[in-house]
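Summary for the lay section of the report: proteins are chains of building blocks that fold into shapes. Here we show the chain for Deoxyribodipyrimidine photolyase-related protein and then a coded description of the shape we predicted for it.
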Amino acid sequence: MTVGIWVLGDQLWTGQSALASCRANQKNTPVILIESLRHAKERRYHKQKLILIWAAMRHFARDLQSEGWQVTYQMAESFEAPLKAWIEAKSIGELRVMEPADKPFSQFLNELDLPCEIVQTPNNHFLWTTQDFEDWAASRKSLLMESFYREGRKRLGVLVNGNKPVGDQWNFDKENRQPPRGKISPPAPLAFEPDEITQEVIEAVNAADFDTFGRAERFVWAVTRQQALAVLDYFVRDRLTTFGPYQDAMVTGEDTLWHSLLSPYLNIGLLQPIEVITAVEEAYIQDNHLPLNSVEGFIRQVMGWREYMRGIYNHMDDDYPSRNYFEHIHPLPDFFWDGDTPMNCLHQTIDTLKRTGYAHHIQRLMILANFSLIAGLSPQEVEDWFHAAFIDGYDWVMQTNVIGMGLFADGGVLATKPYAASANYVNKMSDYCKGCQYDKKARTGENACPFNFFYWDFLDRHRDKLSTQGRMSFILKNLDKMSDDELNEIRQRAKDWHRAQSGLSV
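The coded shape description reads as follows.
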């Protein structure tokens, strides 16, 4: 019986389990990769995301061929037809596919009607298996990320001396919240000129006859493992030192600051989490000048949040994507797609996203998701937009990050309180308010910042539900200090804003 392998677009690692299972017989093992236009049309994906995936797939296929695998590369309308033709042509009796990270694609595989047996091999692109997480969750009364993160450090022996953390504390987050002060001069991100393969993809995506998002006049992302490793080396050498203190800062004209830009490569398999963590830890051991807060802060993002988000994603029931704790129903405003808004923080963030496919975690959480939460936007529409718009966005990433952490639509499964904030936070952590027409301090009046009146309207509308969150009680007491006239104007301004967005007169 001939065994064939189907490599998915986010599984581009020669050590992935389906390929590893046949490595001893690779010269006689057919492998297929498929670019599906139907899959690309499911959402209004960012052009840079489509280019990254398809260019990386084509380069990976070339690398597999050079290793001696029998590789077929197909560009087709859908997956089914080329798969069936390939299976019949190669007389394949068993098709091996590494278990998809995304549940919808797993369901698609389970329902796929092919003339052979489909075997899903375990997904080995993460530090924790699904069962590992379930075993850990079963032993816990609450599923706090901090507890999960500490357990992971102990299990893998990362930044620990025995069972104690290096530096005598597990978390240096308080040292990693510095606002931008003075002139910020981070090194430019490592950029790659598109080769012939990538250029062909760029031209195809720019000529696509289906809806996409963003721009691709300049594409500089890595598309091979060698390039992704170069980005990792560059981060450790030139960016890691200052990554920690300013990881929450936002600065006009600085798209990436000191962030690593590794998530797109981790999420498609060009890099593996353990090698990224090891590179950072070894650099810390060898270089006494690397600050522990930067090292620990980065490792927490990969070993803590990334693994935790994936674990929660698989742990939750099938109704998780539809949860809407606050019953928010307002549609996504058009400016999420075009960036045409007088709110400078949103304009700057969306403009960066349109050009690059990227924005860092605080721009995502405290600008985009925060506004979506306090303005009462539909969690499902917001999650779908995040999935489509970000170059590193996938179902397993965005459901927990948006439905759970960003919009609190799961009612507190993932976060201990809603990440809701007024313009005060934006002004503290960025320079965006300096270039905005709105008054960052005003919550009423013609120039009141929407972040302000929406924030207080959100607290007012959901006071009963928020009062059950212990960490919110102090903030809610501030509502009692407002006059009825001020609260009524705040409520009205929120209603008028939504009416204006829908094209109705106010």
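Put simply, here is one thing we learned. Residues 43 and 384 are 8 Å apart (CA to CA).
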